[in-house]
Amino acid sequence: MTRVTPPEPLWGRAHKRSSLALTLLLLCLALLGYKVGARLALIRAAESGQERRIELLLALGASADSKDPDLGVTALMFAAQNGHAGVARILLSEGASIDARSYQGVTALIYAAGNGHVGLARTLIVNGADVNAKDREGMTVLSYVDERLYPEVAGLLRKAGATR
Questions:
Q1: CA-CA to 52 of 20 to 30 Å: which in 62, 66, 88, 117?
Q2: pTM of the model
Q3: Residues 151-159, mean pLDDT to the nearest whole number
Q4: In this predicted structure, what is the pLDDT of residue 2?
């Protein structure tokens, strides 16, 4: 039996009301076998730092490597971009790929470092993130860091062996 994604207006109405409504809608779809529901619910929860929802969705079978289908950005990347260290730790403990890449070649460490999230960058490095990862344009993690704004992040990366 083939599953079909609900029509766009349903998604839009739920999203406008609240992120909770959207999460509940996606969770219900996940329970009914719509894999897209679990994936999108996990991504939304990671983006907004909702640790309990992440744990629930993972327990219900959502993949720790869930990816946004349009951008190729994983739940871990959304957590890294927004500085949600607790969410990142949960995803990593459930097997999220630390060096997964978006369609642009960006990694979770690039997102965390580029946004000045030093604690999260440290967590990713300790867990084995590639400090010399390059995006599709050849820019390294250190290239994404504005050293005037985030000197601590730049120092952390250099100490871990990062180069431009």
A1: 117
A2: 0.79
A3: 95
A4: 39
pLDDT of residue 45: 93
> Can you give the pLDDT at residue 1?
37
Judge contact between 97 and 74, C-beta under 8 A.
yes
Question: Residue 62 corresponds to which tokens in the numbers above?
Answer: 């959502």
Q: Report angle CA 116, 68, 36 to the nearest 5 degrees.
A: 145
Angle at 111 between CA 40 and CA 124, to 5 degrees: 95
Q: Spell out a b/e string for 83-101, using b for 16 or more CB atoms within 10 Å of the CB, else e.
A: bbbebbbbbbebebebebb
Q: Residue 107: helix, strand or coil by DSSP? A: coil
Cβ contacts of 132 within 8 Å, gap of 6 or more = 140, 141, 161, 162, 163
Task: Return the structure tokens found at 44.
Answer: 């939304």
Contact residues for 141 (Cβ-Cβ < 8 A; gap 6+): 107, 109, 110, 113, 114, 130, 131, 132, 133, 157, 162
